[in-house]
Amino acid sequence: MRVFGAGSRPGRASVPRDRVFTVPNVLTVVRFMGVPLFMWLVLGPREYGWALLVLGIMGCTDWVDGYVARRFNQMSELGRVLDPAADRLALLAVALTLVLAGVVQWWYLLALVVPDIVLGTASLFYFRNHPDLPVSRIGKVRTALLLVGTPLLVLSELRIEGAGDYLVLAWVFLALGLLGHWVAGYNYFWAIVRKGRGVRSERRPGDDDGPHDSGEVRS
Length: 219
Known about the structure:
Layout: H1 23-43, H2 48-71, H3 77-100, H4 106-127, H5 137-155, H6 163-202
């Protein structure tokens, strides 16, 4: 059973199109809308059971929107940027919530934020925009590990038998996810640098350093 790239049709390439209202994009927005609900459930009534359900739904939509996009050729330029951005923001918001709730320490949030700050700074320096890089396999694995580890961490907060075992298992996934996060960040950083240097070297003398609206930024 294919997990990554599920829905792809052999011999049929999916070409991103200039569309906004697609099923995958709607699912991405719905997934991100679950973040404030999760934050309220954890920080307000402390309903970790319902918060776990919300996380489960968010994780499912992350897989489903990719499947639908490939299976029914609904990939879009907006989706290429929106989907990973929603994943990152959702993971950071959930991590911040768990920090404020005392479930994890601040270092966990910092471990997630620092690589993103470095990549964001490099992207602004070279492109003043999104670098438009494909999502790497290790980046997908990293996200999957974090999406599994985080619900397990919430599950360990419930008063159920085996909560301690769930806590240990959660940190196994989260530790591997954080390792993958830094490795993926390292690879993305050098990919941004290489692409940025290539774009700059192709500019004609006299070109300004303003925002790049032409197609030369895209791979």
